[in-house]
Amino acid sequence: MAQSVAGPEIERLIQLLARLPGLGPRSARRAALHLIKKRETLLNPLSEAMRVANERIVVCSSCGNVDTSDPCTICRDHRRDASIIVVVEDVSDLWALERSGAINALYHVLGGVLSPLDGVRPEHLNLDRLVERATQSGVAEVILALSATVDGQTTAHYITDLLNHLPVKVTKLAHGVPVGGELDYLDEGTLSAAIRQRTTF
Ligand code: ZN
């Protein structure tokens, strides 16, 4: 094992940074050193921002989004088209769709997809609340923005059956879009096109 170049406090900072997505041990060391050098302008405000965020983070009881208020900023936004609910696997998909500006609707975060292999069953997902929301008057369409994987499609069929008795249209994103924690990697034009070219499920 390589020798430590710094005291345990700094080593701990490096180890924690290395757990972030996209950062390996080498870039974590670089990031740690950068933070230490920019103590006043970066390390102090960052640790304060993390402390405040950590204290206030809540999961929205309506849609499953993470925010610092419940209901979340999106659910409270009355300028949105509340007749459309976009169903996504993960909060990262919601953020990607929002960033693309592809649609000005409400969302529903499932928290995963059904997966017999991984033991993910309907009761593990945020499905009851989705049915409740879709039952509310004024909801006309549910867009399933789920991955093109077998599990994603199984989940899409399951949800379509769940909503079958309701007077809502169920649609899915244009074919061939890799989604489900992967929406983030798509450029905004592709995302917008996938929403525009959605088809009835
Ligand atoms: Zn919400």
Mind sketching the topology for me?
Layout: H1 8-17, H2 25-37, H3 39-56, E1 58-59, E2 66-67, E3 81-88, H4 91-100, E4 105-109, H5 128-135, E5 141-145, H6 150-162, E6 169-172, H7 188-196, E7 199-200
Parallel strand pairs: 3-4, 3-5, 5-6
Antiparallel strand pairs: 1-2, 6-7
Helix pairs in contact: 1-2, 2-3, 4-7
Residues 60, 62-63, 65, 71-72, 74-75 line the site of zinc ion (ZN).
Protein name: Recombination protein RecR
Keywords: DNA damage, DNA recombination, DNA repair, Metal-binding, Zinc, Zinc-finger
Function: May play a role in DNA repair. It seems to be involved in an RecBC-independent recombinational process of DNA repair. It may act with RecF and RecO.
Tell me the number of strands: 7
Q: Give the amount of beta strand, in percent.
A: 5-15%
Uncertain regions spanning at least 5 consecutive residues: none
Number of structural domains: 2
Would you tell me the overall average pLDDT? 91
Using the alpha-carbon principal axes, give the shape.
Answer: elongated
Strand order of the largest sheet: 4-3-5-6-7
| Radius of gyration, whole Å | 20 Å
| Proportion in helices | 40-55%
Order of helices and strands: HHHEEEHEHEHEHE
Structural class: alpha/beta
Task: Indicate the CATH architecture of the largest domain.
Answer: 3-Layer(aba) Sandwich
Ligands present: zinc ion
Outline the biggest β-sheet: 5 strands, mixed
Number of discrete helical segments: 7
| CATH class identity of the largest domain | Alpha Beta
CATH topology of the largest domain: Dna Topoisomerase Vi A Subunit, Chain: A, domain 2
What is the terminal separation in angstroms? 54 Å
Organism: Microvirga terricola
InterPro entries: DNA_Rcmb_RecR, Rcmb_RecR, Rcmb_RecR_Znf, TOPRIM_dom, TOPRIM_RecR
Domain Toprim: 83-178
Family: Belongs to the RecR family.
